[in-house]
């Protein structure tokens, strides 16, 4: 969808007035990003699909309540996704988690499909560790590395200052270093 | 290398970020997933209408059930009256 024709403010106004096509434009623009976020937070393709649909359903049902107060529409969507994923984890807490090794590997953008079938043990270990982190730290890492967002953008989504995000990131890296060190994954030979 | 508990060297930060960037890569949702999601959005009914429809359907079922029950009672009553009353 060419960005030159996409005026988000205009599209949001139309969508909030019940224009289904306008909402479709928003969907096309954000589907990949929301799916990525949900996929990494759940580690499960089927639940990622279901939760992504529910994010957009909820957004569509409540878009007239969305008011632009300096918070980007994407931040509002991510907050919906965050809440739904949190509920999903709460519901699943009594059930057994799917081991990360069973999670289907989706093709990464720009990679050859064959390369995606090979996931190193280190990456598996790192993913396992990331999924054990508190939710806000998982959010931070996903938004930073999967979505390539700046600390300021992440702060807008998480409702924190840029400095607080930077500090949280530092603490997360420290925890990660210790964890990887305990698993004898060498960081100094990178 | 001696680990400081609260500080990270620049090399460690770079190494950790390289690990994270290599692991947390953007994925492409399968095309069938995107298509199904698109259909769910475009053909979605607003929740209020769906719930109202569900209520109407429920009311029709209840009303139909009550009417059928009454009809059976009246028929049985008339049959009994016809059989017993005539004696």
Structural commentary:
Chain A is built from 9 helices and no strands. Chain A is mainly alpha-helical. Chain A folds into 2 domains: 1-111, RNA polymerase sigma factor, region 2, helix turn helix motif (Rna Polymerase Sigma Factor, Chain: A), CATH 1.10.1740.10; 120-190, Orthogonal Bundle (Arc Repressor Mutant, subunit A). In chain A, α2 (20-42) crosses α4 and α4 crosses α8 (151-158). The radius of gyration of chain A is 18 Å and the shape is globular. Residues 98-103 and 112-118 of chain A have low confidence and may be disordered. Chain B has 87 residues and is an all-alpha fold. Chain B has one domain (10-85). Helix content of chain B is 75%, strand content 0%. Chain B contains 3 helices and no strands. Chain B is rod-shaped, with a radius of gyration of 35 Å. The chains are: A mainly alpha (190), B mainly alpha (87). The interface between A and B is large, with 47 and 35 residues.
């Amino acid at each position: 969808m060419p960005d030159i024709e996409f005026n988000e403010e205009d599209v949001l106004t139309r969508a909030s007035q019940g224009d289904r096509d306008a909402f479709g434009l928003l969907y096309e623009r954000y589907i990949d990003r929301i799916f990525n976020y949900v996929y990494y937070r759940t580690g499960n393709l089927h639940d990622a699909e279901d939760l992504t649909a529910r994010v957009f359903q909820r957004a569509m049902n409540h878009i007239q309540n969305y008011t632009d107060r300096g918070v980007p529409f994407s931040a509002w969507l991510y907050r919906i996704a965050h809440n739904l994923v949190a509920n999903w984890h709460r519901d699943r807490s009594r059930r057994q988690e799917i081991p990360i090794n069973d999670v289907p590997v989706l093709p990464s953008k720009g990679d050859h499909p064959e390369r995606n079938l090979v996931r190193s043990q280190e990456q598996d270990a790192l993913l396992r560790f990331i999924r054990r982190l508190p939710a806000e730290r998982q959010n931070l890492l996903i938004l930073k590395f999967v979505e390539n967002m700046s600390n300021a953008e992440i702060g807008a989504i998480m409702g924190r200052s840029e400095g607080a995000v930077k500090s949280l990131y530092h603490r997360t890296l420290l925890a990660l270093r210790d964890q990887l060190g305990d698993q004898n994954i060498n960081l100094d030979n990178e | 290398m001696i680990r400081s508990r609260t500080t990270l060297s620049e090399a460690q930060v770079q190494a950790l970020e390289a690990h994270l960037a290599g692991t947390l890569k953007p994925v492409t949702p399968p095309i069938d997933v995107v298509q199904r999601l698109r259909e769910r959005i475009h053909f979605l009914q607003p929740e209020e209408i769906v719930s109202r429809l569900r209520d109407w359907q429920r009311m029709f079922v209840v009303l139909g059930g009550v009417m059928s029950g009454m009809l059976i009672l009246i028929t049985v009553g008339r049959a009994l009256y016809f059989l017993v009353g005539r004696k």
